[in-house]
Specification:
Blueprint lengths: L6 E5 L7 H10 L5 E5 L3 H11 L4 E7 L1 H16 L6 E7 L5 H6 L5 H8 L4 E10 L4 E4 L2 E5 L1 H6 L3 H7 L3 H4 L1 H4 L6 E7 L5 E11 L3 E2 L3 E2 L11 E7 L3 H5 L1 H6 L9 E6 L1 E7 L3 E4 L2 E5 L2 E13 L3 H6 L1
Parallel strand pairs: 1-2, 1-3, 3-4
Antiparallel strand pairs: 5-6, 5-17, 7-9, 7-15, 8-9, 8-14, 9-12, 10-11, 12-13, 14-17, 15-16
Helix pairs in contact: 2-3
């Protein structure tokens, strides 16, 4: 049997509560080579990561997408500071969204998630570097801007249950009368800029956002590219028609969707777009994005287990 790697689990007590967290902690305590390190905030997360990232082993983020982004950012900052990254990254999903975990097919059942953590199977993970006038950092799943926050406001439990992963575009119907439009200028991979009148922009490394709502079904976290989706302004009936196209998986060819794929992106907007990265506010446009291909190795289920799902 291969020797167990030392493993540090970054645990935010304020964001890891409830029965699933209790069960996860109980299971982790059964493994003497696993260190559960309780931290409070970004600075303690960075310190914990900086001290361990250059040693072979595993650094795991236990929590939701915000915790995951903090740990990913700390690892990338350590590399930017000249540290060699030898540790493998891992995710233990304990949040409400868990979108990166969904994309990596990490099980939500604590015992099964820990099996992945302790396994020998790893996969490459692209990391996205972003910069706005107020913040520079990294994320692993998705950057969004526009009216998506308004969609989420109308996402009732009944709507989520009925429409499942297609809630994001279904939500457009309920807020059509209150949508704000943005004149945006988009430049991808150094090509000439394109201009759009837009309702929303999505830069997808992973497939889902907002807790499992599919934004870009074909996005992959290991292809070195972001899926870029621009939702254009249009007549209410045409906007509502996006839902049907989405169900039929031909939304990329819809007249109101502009789809691009790129590894380096510059976005400007008037008025400025408020932006989020993996659910956290990162300020407003202008925005630059750069994909770092295979920046991290991440624990994932074995291929057979992923195919079984």
């Amino acid at each position: 049997m291969p020797e167990r790697q030392p493993c540090t689990v970054i645990w935010h007590p304020s964001s890891t509560s409830g029965q699933r967290a209790d069960a996860m902690r109980t299971e982790l305590d059964k493994h003497p080579h696993v260190e559960v390190l309780e931290v409070d905030g970004t600075s303690e997360t960075e310190q914990a990561v900086f001290e361990r990232v250059s040693r072979p082993g595993v650094i795991a983020a236990a929590g939701g997408d915000g915790t995951v982004r903090q740990v990913v950012s700390a690892i990338m900052q350590a590399r930017a500071n000249g540290k060699e990254v030898k540790a493998t990254f891992a995710v233990l999903p304990l949040g409400t969204g868990n979108d990166l975990a969904r994309g990596l097919q990490i099980p939500f059942v604590p015992e099964q998630a820990i099996d992945v953590l302790l396994s020998q199977h790893e996969s490459p993970l692209d990391v996205v570097e972003f910069e706005t006038p107020s913040e520079r950092g990294w994320c692993a799943n998705m950057v969004t801007g526009g009216n998506s926050g308004r969609y989420l406001e109308v996402m009732t439990d009944e709507l989520k249950e009925r429409w499942g992963a297609f809630c994001y575009l279904r939500g457009i119907i309920d807020v059509i009368k209150n949508l704000e439009t943005f004149e945006i200028e988009l430049r991808c991979d150094g090509e000439p800029s394109e201009k759009f009148t837009a309702l929303n922009v999505f830069f997808a490394n992973g497939r889902t956002s907002g807790g499992g709502m599919v934004v870009s079904p074909d996005a992959a976290v290991d292809d070195g590219k972001l899926d870029v989706l621009i939702v254009r302004d249009g007549q209410p009936g045409a906007i509502a028609g996006l839902t049907a196209s989405y169900f039929l998986s031909d939304y990329k060819s819809h007249d109101l969707i502009a789809f691009r794929r790129a590894s380096q992106i510059v976005l400007k907007a008037n008025p400025d777009l408020l932006l989020t990265a993996d659910g956290d506010s990162i300020g407003a446009t202008p925005l630059t994005l750069k994909v770092h291909p295979a920046a991290l190795q991440v624990k994932t289920p074995a291929a057979s287990a992923m195919q079984a799902d």
